[in-house]
Amino acid sequence: MQIKTKVHNNSLYVLLIGELDEANAPYVRNHLDQVIETEKGFNKVIVDLSQLDFMDSTGIGVMLGRYKKLQSRNIPIYIINPSRQAEKIFQMAGLYDIMPKIS
Amino acid sequence: MPKNKKGDYMKNQIEIKFKSLPENEAFARTCVSAFCLQLNPTLDEIGDIKTAVSEAVTNCVVHAYPNKVGEITMLLSREQDQIHISIKDSGVGIENIEEALTPFYTTKPDEERSGMGFTVMDSFMDSLVVKHNGAKGLIVEMTKRIENKQAV
Question: Is domain A2-97 in CATH 3.30.750.24, yes or no?
């Protein structure tokens, strides 16, 4: 699992690469929380899921956890380019209702 | 694939035992996807099966053996165009299975658990049966038909 982040035009871009499951969840959770805490100058988070090859319900929990943290700071999350597998999980769990997909 | 005297495909079966370690989830997913290749599945079908298996194995890692490493048995079999998967543990078990199957039900909300594991298994597979493994643990049985257009 690999995570790339950058701040551009007031957005924090997050690229998740690999497989998000129970084995990788602690790393993703800690890394994202650290980036959210330390990065400056963003008012929204854009998560690119084009290279997320696998995600299961553990990943739903990880995304919901980050959503709640950011919500307390009034920072919305948006999803771009979901892989086929991520798209199915997001649709099923209704995650797009709270972190909309944008193009 | 080899056929028997009646002209049906021979049943195929593999049993794997592994420890309830998080890194074995990827191992279980890879095993099941390799096993399914004999039915020439689509990427979507493989994705669904891998996700369902990952959920069942995660349940064993997180819930069945919360404070120790236990053993998980995964039985994969193929009969005609059906894949059967059974994932068995000897862990703490679930008292009220029906309640556990409810979407968003979780015993560990403080750990950011979504409570969607069984819901994912149920919606990604054709059938899901969850039952007690005797006095200890759980057996999760799932099947999926591979809609193979090409005869092998």
Answer: yes
